[in-house]
Design brief:
By secondary structure, this protein is α+β, with helices and mostly antiparallel strands. Strands 1, 2, 3, 4, 5, 6 and 7 form a 7-stranded antiparallel sheet that branches. A 5-stranded mixed sheet has the order 9-10-8-13-14, with helices on both faces. Strands 11-12 form a two-stranded antiparallel sheet.
C-alpha cells in the first residue's frame, strides 16, 4: 500500500487541466518524477501513421540548455509499432501493461542500444526504466507510453519499488484522460480556428489597409495629398547620400505662391485652399513620377529631382510656372483670378553636409526670384 504522502488525490490532477499539450506533458513528467523520485522521463504518443512518436523528455541531471539541445534531434524520433519490435516502449504499448527493467545493462530482452549510446556521448548512466502504457479505458485503446528513468534516492540510483509501480499504474488513468481531453480541446480549437480563418484574414486585411492609410496620413498633406515636410525630413538625407555616393545630380526646387496673403484676405481661406490644391494638381500633371513633390508649409512647396541635371530641372520648373499662371481659379460666376509662383533651384553638391545647408541654398535662389519681381525661376549661382 502507499504511504500517506503518496496517496493519489483527484485534486492533485487538477494541475493537468491545461489547454496546451506540450505544457501538459511537461507537468505530467514533473509530477510523475516527483512522486517516484525518478531522475528522468519520456513520453511517446501514437501518431496517425501507427508510430510511437517522441513527445517530451526531461532529465534533472542536465541543464535546461542541454535538455533543449536534446529535444531537437529527439523530435524526429519515432518507433514503428510492430509485434516483434525490440524497443521497450513498443513492447509496453503492444502488451498494454507496465514493464520495469531494473538494469538496462543486464537486460537481454529489449534493445537499449540508443540509451547506451546516449550514456557514452553525454557521460551519463541509465540504469532502471519504468514504462507504463497510457490506456483510454473508454475505448480500450492505448494512446502512448510514459517512461520513468533512474529512481534516485540521496544521489544513488536504485530500482523502482512496488509502490512506484502501483502509483504509476493508477495515475496513468488520470494522465491519459488529461492528454485525451487536451487533444480534443486542440482539435476543437483547430475547427474553431478554421471557422475564424476567413474572419481573421479579412480583419488582417482591414488592419493592413488601415496601417497603409495611417502611413499615408502621416507622410502626406491632408489638403493637397502631396508629401509633407515630415516625409521630406525622412528622405532627404538618404537621397543626398545616394547622390554623393553614386555621383549623380540631385536638384531641389522651392516654390512660393506670390502674394498669397492677398488671396486669403480678398477671397477667404476657403478659396485659398482651392488655390493651393490647384498648385498640387498642376504638379501631378506636369512633373515625372520619379520626382517628389512636397507641400513644405503654407503656400510653400518643394520638388526634389533625383538624377536630373539642373538645366533640365529649370525647363520643368519653367513649364510649371507657366501652367500655374494659365490656370484660372473661379471664385463665383463673376469673379476669377490666377496665381503666379516664384521658384528657386539649387543642385546638391559634394560639400553640402546636410539638408539644412541644401535648403539654405535653394531658399536663397527663391529669394532672388522674389526680389527680381516674382513669377520667375532662378538658379543659385
Amino acid at each position: 500500500m502507499f504511504e500517506n504522502d503518496k496517496l493519489i488525490a483527484i485534486e492533485d490532477f487538477k494541475i493537468f487541466e491545461v489547454d496546451d499539450l506540450n505544457t501538459l506533458l511537461h507537468k505530467i513528467l514533473n509530477y510523475s518524477k516527483k512522486i517516484t523520485n525518478a531522475e528522468a522521463g519520456t513520453i511517446y504518443l501514437k501518431d496517425e501513421n501507427n508510430n510511437l512518436r517522441f513527445s517530451i523528455f526531461q532529465n534533472d541531471a542536465f541543464s535546461y540548455e542541454k535538455i533543449y539541445d536534446f529535444q531537437l534531434p529527439l523530435k524526429n524520433m519515432k518507433l514503428e509499432i510492430k509485434e516483434d519490435s525490440p524497443a521497450l516502449a513498443v513492447a509496453c504499448f503492444n502488451k498494454s501493461k507496465l514493464i520495469c527493467v531494473d538494469d538496462i545493462y543486464e537486460d537481454s530482452i529489449y534493445d537499449f542500444t540508443k540509451s547506451k549510446e546516449f550514456d557514452i556521448i553525454n557521460s551519463y548512466k541509465t540504469k532502471s526504466i519504468l514504462c507504463v502504457p497510457l490506456i483510454n479505458h473508454n475505448s480500450n485503446k492505448t494512446i502512448g507510453v510514459l517512461q520513468l528513468i533512474n529512481k534516485n534516492i540521496n544521489g544513488k540510483k536504485v530500482i523502482f519499488t512496488k509502490e512506484d509501480k502501483e502509483f504509476i499504474s493508477l495515475s496513468s488513468y488520470f494522465i491519459t484522460l488529461s492528454i485525451i481531453s487536451t487533444q480534443d480541446s486542440i482539435e476543437q480549437l483547430k475547427l474553431h480556428n478554421l471557422e475564424l480563418e476567413g474572419k481573421v484574414k479579412q480583419r488582417t486585411k482591414e488592419l493592413e489597409d488601415t496601417q497603409k492609410e495611417l502611413i499615408i496620413q502621416v507622410n502626406h498633406d491632408s489638403l493637397t495629398k502631396l508629401y509633407n515636410r515630415r516625409y521630406f525630413n525622412e528622405i532627404i538625407k538618404n537621397l543626398m547620400k545616394i547622390s554623393q555616393r553614386d555621383k549623380k545630380p540631385l536638384v531641389i526646387a522651392m516654390l512660393d505662391i506670390d502674394d498669397f496673403k492677398k488671396v486669403n484676405d480678398t477671397y477667404g481661406h476657403g478659396i485659398g485652399d482651392i488655390a493651393i490644391k490647384r498648385i498640387a494638381e498642376v504638379f501631378n500633371k506636369t512633373i515625372r513620377t520619379s520626382d517628389i513633390s512636397i507641400r513644405f508649409g503654407g503656400e510653400e512647396f518643394i520638388i526634389i529631382f533625383p538624377d536630373t541635371n539642373i538645366t533640365n530641372c529649370q525647363k520643368i520648373c519653367e513649364k510649371l510656372r507657366v501652367k500655374i499662371e494659365e490656370s484660372i481659379i473661379k471664385v463665383n460666376d463673376k469673379k476669377e483670378f490666377s496665381l503666379t509662383v516664384s521658384i528657386g533651384l539649387s543642385q546638391i553638391e559634394i560639400d553640402d553636409l546636410n539638408e539644412d545647408q541644401a535648403l539654405y541654398k535653394v531658399d536663397k535662389a527663391l529669394y532672388k526670384s522674389k526680389k527680381q519681381g516674382k513669377n520667375q525661376v532662378n538658379i543659385l549661382t
